[in-house]
Structures are given as structure tokens and as C-alpha cells.
UniProtKB/TrEMBL annotation:
The organism's place on the tree of life at top rank: Bacteria
Similarity comment: Belongs to the FAH family.
GO molecular function: hydrolase activity; metal ion binding
Keywords: Hydrolase, Metal-binding
GO BP: small molecule metabolic process
Domain Fumarylacetoacetase-like C-terminal: 199-344
Protein name in UniProt: Fumarylacetoacetate hydrolase
InterPro entries: FAH, Fumarylacetoacetase-like_C, Fumarylacetoacetase_C_sf
SUPFAM superfamilies: FAH
């Protein structure tokens, strides 16, 4: 059962400003939340990317109080549409160590525990190193000398961040939707992250939450399998809404955010963890700058900032670590941003993705909204 809208929002939602998307019987709509009310912005701007580009966050038709939820027949969608979906990897020291473990275990979860202990003893000092600094270069030289260097450590402490394309335009799913892992994956996990929302010029206008669903066995076999590990049907969840930056919510709130994760399994299993943004190795603003680089994003982009959380708690067999089961309920929450909850299926069995750019544009044209993109 999908939670009521008010239960997905932060406690101070009435003092904040939010935009998002909802599916109505006619098609997707752009909604805004302010002062505890829901407004339909669709007649002003028909896309989330357009709202961000033109800063169309006010006005619209008042359609009710947040406590009364969305109109009957409406449901939340991912709050983005035409924006490119980008992600930064290995932005925390712990995630760097876990990626090296995947690489050395060649995707075999059973080998991970022993490798983890050996690596912690060797590269624990990575936690205190500023990426791209002279100290980072010295650590790199030492680790190369000891035969411990890895491509993952390169992006963890080197000058260049790992930035990759997570998922195609319009493919992300929203709060309450099914998320998918490949049916042939035996070692996988959620990645609870803050997602920054940017316009075409790299200005960050707000933040939301994301689940960068990851296949550890695929990426562990080879980093060249990153796209198979990351980009699968329903493998990218974003939501519930975009909280816009204002006097009461800024990038500093992102920098100190805790992103809590809970997994409730169908067999009664429960796992809890936290992604503490205060421990990120690269500042979020630097990640945005590296993502923008010399690229062009005419419809804007969103950027997953990476995660500290890498589940190592055994689920079934000692030493086998964690992996998803069909029916897992994954809940990601942050005090100032909201709650994103999804249920796990396989990508093969998840609802198929059918509304691509062509179908999306056709729907807007049929509704007379094509000039409001």
C-alpha cells in the first residue's frame, strides 16, 4: 500500500517548498507544495525540467491540503522527467574499500569477509585523505609499492571523481513503485543517496532522495560491467519530491544530512543503516562541477552523490553478506527531505517501462501542453 503523501514528507514540510510529478488519468502533472497546500502547475509548465530551467515554482491551481493527499486517481511519479540521470561513485572512503573488495573477490560474496579485513588493515588511512591532495598522492605511491592499488582507489582519492550515467531519461521510478534487480544477480544491494537537482548550467536548485540499486557481483567481476550493474529496468528510484533550496533549506543541509535506510524482508529479516553525508570525501558542489565539466545538459541533470552505506550484515549464510530478496521493502529517509519507499522485484518481472520520450511528448501534445515543456 502506498503511503499517504503527508507521511512521505519531512516534519517541517509546511515551511518548505517542493516540486514533483504525479500521474493523473490524463497523464503526468507537475505539482508544487507550499504552505501545506498542493498546487497543480501543469498549465504553467508541463515538465519538471522546464520548471527547474525557468524557476516556475509558484502559482498554479490550488488542489487541496497536503493532509488530504493527492486527488483520487492520482499517484506520485519520480519528480524528474527530461533531466539526465547521473551518479557519482566511490565518494566515501568506506564505499571505496567495498569496491576494492568486490574487485578482488571477483563478485563472489563468500570471499568478501576475509578480503575486507585485510584491506581495512592496509588502507584504513584513506578515510582521512582529501582527494587530489599531496597526501593522497603519497598514499597512492605507497599502495602501488605494496601492490594494493586499484582503479577504485584512483577515483576515491585521485583528482577526478567517478561520474557515470545511471539510467535513461524518463526511466526512474518514484515513491511506492517497484524496484528491480537483475534476475541473474546473486549479490546486490540498495544504495541510499542524496540526489541533487541541477539546471542546464549546473545551478543546484534542490535535493531529493534516490536508490542507486547496484549489482555487486556484476561490477565485481569487471568494472567494465558497470552499465549492467547499474542500468536495468526499475533500478533507479527517485523521490518523493524535490525540496527546493530557500532560506530554510540549503546545500549546507545536504552536507550534514543523514540518509537512513531500512530493509524489511518477507521472511522477517531486518537491516538498518545510515549514509552520513558529513563523511563524504568530495564536497557535493565539487561533484556537480565535475559532472557539468565541459558537457551540455540542455534539460538539466540530477546527480546521485554516492553512499557511505555498504551492507555487510549476513542474511542467510555466515560470511555470505547481504543480498536482496524479492519482496524486500526498502525505505530511505532523511529528516529534511522526506521518505522514499519501494518494494523489490526482479527487473524481468517489474512493470515494464513504456513511457519513453516519444510517448511522453505525444501525451503532452494530445493535451495541448507541448508549448509548455
Amino acid at each position: 500500500m502506498v503511503a499517504e503523501l503527508v507521511n512521505l514528507l519531512p516534519a517541517d514540510y509546511a515551511a518548505g517548498h517542493f516540486i514533483g510529478r504525479a500521474q493523473s488519468p490524463e497523464g503526468p502533472r507537475i505539482i508544487a507544495l507550499r504552505e501545506g497546500r498542493i498546487f497543480d502547475l501543469t498549465q504553467l509548465v508541463a515538465t519538471s525540467s522546464g520548471a527547474v530551467a525557468r524557476k516556475v515554482f509558484s502559482g498554479g491551481e490550488d488542489i487541496g491540503a497536503v493532509e488530504d493527499s493527492l486527488p483520487a486517481g492520482w499517484s506520485l511519479l519520480s519528480p524528474i522527467d527530461l533531466q539526465c540521470i547521473k551518479a557519482a561513485g566511490v565518494t566515501f572512503a568506506l564505499s571505496a574499500i567495498e569496491r576494492v573488495i568486490e574487485e578482488r573477490a571477483r563478485g563472489d560474496a563468500a570471499k568478501a569477509a576475509a578480503i575486507r579485513q585485510a584491506l581495512e588493515d592496509k588502507v584504513g588511512g584513506i578515510r582521512d585523505v582529501v582527494p587530489g591532495s599531496a597526501e593522497a598522492a603519497q598514499l597512492k605511491a605507497l599502495l602501488i609499492e605494496e601492490g594494493m592499488w586499484s582503479q577504485y582507489l584512483e577515483v576515491a582519492i585521485g583528482p577526478d571523481a567517478e561520474i557515470f550515467s545511471k539510467s535513461p531519461v524518463l526511466s526512474s521510478v518514484g515513491a511506492g513503485a517497484t524496484i528491480g534487480v537483475r534476475s541473474d544477480s546473486s549479490w546486490n544491494n540498495p544504495e541510499p543517496e542524496v540526489v541533487l537537482v541541477c539546471d542546464a548550467h549546473g545551478e543546484v536548485v534542490g535535493a531529493t532522495l534516490g536508490n542507486d540499486v547496484n549489482l555487486r557481483d556484476f561490477e565485481g567481476r569487471s568494472a567494465l560491467l558497470l552499465s549492467k550493474a547499474k542500468d536495468n529496468t526499475a533500478s533507479c528510484a527517485i523521490g518523493p519530491l524535490i525540496r527546493l533550496f530557500d532560506d530554510g533549506f540549503t546545500m549546507d543541509d545536504v552536507r550534514k544530512a543523514n540518509v537512513d535506510l531500512t530493509i524489511d524482508g518477507p521472511e522477517g529479516y531486518r537491516l538498518e543503516g545510515t549514509n552520513d553525508m558529513g563523511q563524504i570525501s568530495r564536497d557535493p558542489a565539487d561533484l556537480v562541477s565535475q559532472c557539468l565539466s565541459e558537457h551540455h545538459y540542455p534539460d538539466g541533470f540530477v546527480l546521485f552523490c554516492g553512499t557511505l552505506f555498504a551492507p555487510t550484515q549476513d542474511r542467510d549464510e555466515p560470511g555470505a553478506g547481504f543480498t536482496h530478496k524479492v519482496g524486500d521493502v526498502v525505505t530511505i529517509a532523511s529528516q529534511r527531505i522526506g521518505t522514499l519507499s519501494n518494494t523489490v522485484s526482479t527487473s524481468r518481472d517489474a512493470p515494464p517501462w513504456t513511457v519513453g520520450i516519444g510517448e511522453f511528448v505525444r501525451n503532452l501534445a494530445q493535451r495541448g501542453l507541448i508549448d509548455r515543456i
